[in-house]
Amino acid sequence: MSETPAETPAETPAATPVETEKASFRSDVTVELVKHSAADSDVLWAARVSTAGEQSLDELTKDPERSKGLINFLMRDRHGSPFEHNSMTFFISAPIFVFREFMRHRVGWSYNEESGRYRRLEPVFYVPGEDRKLVQQGRPGKYEFVDGTSEQHALTGRAMEDAYRHAYEAYQEMLAAGVAREVARAVLPVGLYSSMYATCNARSLMHFLGLRTQHEQAAVPSFPQREIEMVGEKMEEAWAGLMPLTHAAFNANGRVAP
Fold first, then answer.
1. Which residues contact 11 (CB under 8 A, 6 or more apart)?
2. C-alpha distance from residue 111 to each of 60, 95, 190, 234 (Å)
3. Is 105 among the annotated ligand-binding positions?
4. Which CATH number fits domain 24-125+193-252: 3.40.50.300, 1.10.357.10, 2.60.120.10, 3.30.1360.170?
5. Tens-digit pLDDT profile for residues 222-250
6. In which pathway does it act (predicted)?
7. 103 annotated as a binding-site residue
8. Mind listing the pLDDT tens digit for each residue in 161-217?
9. Does the pLDDT value for residue 111 go beyond 50?
């Protein structure tokens, strides 16, 4: 009695290989002032309407020492609303963990961040530079950061880069399999770079800088994470060029927002 040959199982189609995009690593941040309507005269105009009514720009600026004195008075005695009549919009590219701290600042700020729901996120990740202090000493509320050893820096860079590559490969694999971007993005770490537009006025920016930068003239000490301080320093540099009298008064009065 002859045996009936068994049916040959159909071959399983080979999986489509996932093309892995090469990750890149940064230790810096990008801050660009993209548009503004901000000048010291905006502060003067807003303040003097209280006592003098509407005035022309020539009238506002014809006495520089008087203008400087008024701005310093407003800052010193914390008359804050005249510092709100201006606007600055920044383009910022930084790690996601920076944005999570940044968006604690809500009053006087508007944000629009790139969306991982609607676009494929690029493999750009944060790795601390050699000048980044790595070691925390002391207890919470009373600690300091000190330089790490060369071995600690090497370990940090290697561990971060390996983790980033693995996470992004998983992200690409899910996208290639048809998984929605809004689901696949969950595997990506907070060291991924994102970008946003942030719009503020001088008063809200001063409050941000008072908390997110360290400065020798600050009356109230602050202990920001270095990466958000890097953003703050670049924003402050741009703002100081637009409103030098206001910036000088901010420093002269302990860097406390009015």
1. none
2. 32, 15, 18, 18
3. yes
4. 3.30.1360.170
5. 999 999 999 999 999 999 999 999 999 99
6. Pyrimidine metabolism; dTTP biosynthesis
7. yes
8. 999 999 999 999 999 999 999 999 999 999 999 999 999 999 999 999 999 999 999
9. yes
Residue 207 annotated as binding? yes
Q: pTM (2 decimals)?
A: 0.87
Cβ–Cβ contacts within 10 Å for residue 6, how many?
A: 6
3 labelled binding-site residue: no
Is 212 annotated in the active site? yes
The stretches of the chain forming alpha helices (DSSP H) are 40-52, 57-61, 64-76, 96-102, 150-176, 181-184, 202-212, 226-242, 244-252
185 assigned to a ligand binding site = yes
- Confidence (pLDDT) at 14: 45
Render pLDDT for 122-155 as a digit per residue (tens, 0 to 9).
Answer: 999 999 999 999 999 888 777 889 999 999 999 9
Give 40: exposed, middle or buried? Use CB within 10 Å, 0-12, 13-18, 19+. Answer: buried
Cβ–Cβ contacts within 10 Å for residue 210, how many?
Answer: 19
What are the CA-CA distances from residue 44 to residues 41, 83, 214, 258 (Å)?
5, 9, 28, 15
* Span 47-104, pLDDT tens digits: 988 665 555 555 556 678 888 999 999 999 999 999 999 999 999 999 999 999 999 9
Single out the catalytic residue among 76, 78, 181, 212. Answer: 212
Which residue from 46, 77, 42 is spatially nearest to 254, judged by alpha carbons?
77
